[in-house]
Specification:
This protein is α+β, with helices and mostly antiparallel strands. The chain contains three helices and 16 strands. Belongs to the FlgA family.
């Protein structure tokens, strides 16, 4: 995303309508010909910011392959603001933050004979289907399928890692209590230990359609899909196996 591209190449239909409306207001109104020739009004700055953010957000979502819908709200400027008329195309750049989500500031600049810069604040909301709780949950509890569901939320201001699939949460251990309808993020979760050192486990060795099972003993703790050390109680050999379920591990043949 190149936030410094001249905005004149990025005119949206809304922005075009705004410019046409402003042109009609200033140039067809005989009572205010001097205003159109001498100043740039706040409505034009807001229109430039709105169009620039529409393009920038769509570009960001396409580049990052992020699904979702967005809403842009440009803050009102002081209606008394009067900037000198710009004899060149206005340019818009994203001043902060690095990505066009949450609270943002757009720098609108004139590089003409009477240069000026105006900083326009705005807010970009990005709505996605994310994992939330369906009921209050206790600390140290293991999340079950009934505990979570997908709901649409504004993730524009979420700094922690949100989850977009309930499978990412199911089977995880909560490190803090949660209330109903609360957004689940990575800071709430830790890998639940489904096998502990000393547990008796069933070792499965798969090769195609062949599946051999033998008794084993876990030599370390582990969560789902983690690899742990296991002793084969038949051969007394120590091997590494992946946990597939409580009391179940698997090795590749």
């Amino acid at each position: 995303m190149n936030a410094k591209t001249t905005f004149s190449r990025r005119l949206t239909s809304n922005y075009r309508r705004l410019l046409y409306g402003l042109s009609a207001l200033f140039f067809l109104n005989p009572g205010h010909p001097a205003v159109a020739d001498s100043v740039t009004l706040p409505d034009l700055l807001i229109g430039v910011t709105q169009g620039f953010l529409e393009f920038t957000v769509e570009d960001y979502l396409a580049t990052s392959q992020t699904p979702g819908r967005y809403e842009i709200q440009v803050n009102q400027l002081d209606p008394r603001l009067r900037m000198p008329h710009c004899d060149k195309e206005l340019t818009a750049t994203l001043e902060s933050p690095a990505q066009p989500l949450g609270r943002v500031t757009v720098r609108v600049r004139c590089d003409g004979a009477s240069p000026w810069t105006v900083f326009v604040p705005a807010q970009v909301k990005l709505f996605r289907e994310v994992v939330t709780t369906t009921r209050p949950l206790k600390r140290a509890g293991i999340i079950s399928p009934e505990d979570v569901m997908l709901r649409e939320r504004d993730i524009g201001q979420i700094n922690q890692g949100y989850l977009t699939s309930v499978d990412q949460a199911i089977g995880q251990k909560l490190v803090r209590p949660m209330v109903a309808d609360q957004l689940v993020t990575l800071v709430h979760l830790e890998q639940a230990e489904v096998v502990r050192k000393g547990d008796q486990v069933v070792i499965s060795a798969r090769s195609g359609t062949l599946n051999v099972k033998m008794p084993g003993e876990a030599l370390s703790n582990g969560g789902m899909s983690e690899q742990i050390r296991v002793k084969n109680l038949n051969s007394q050999r120590v091997i590494k196996a992946r946990i597939t379920a409580p009391g179940q591990v698997e090795v590749a043949m």
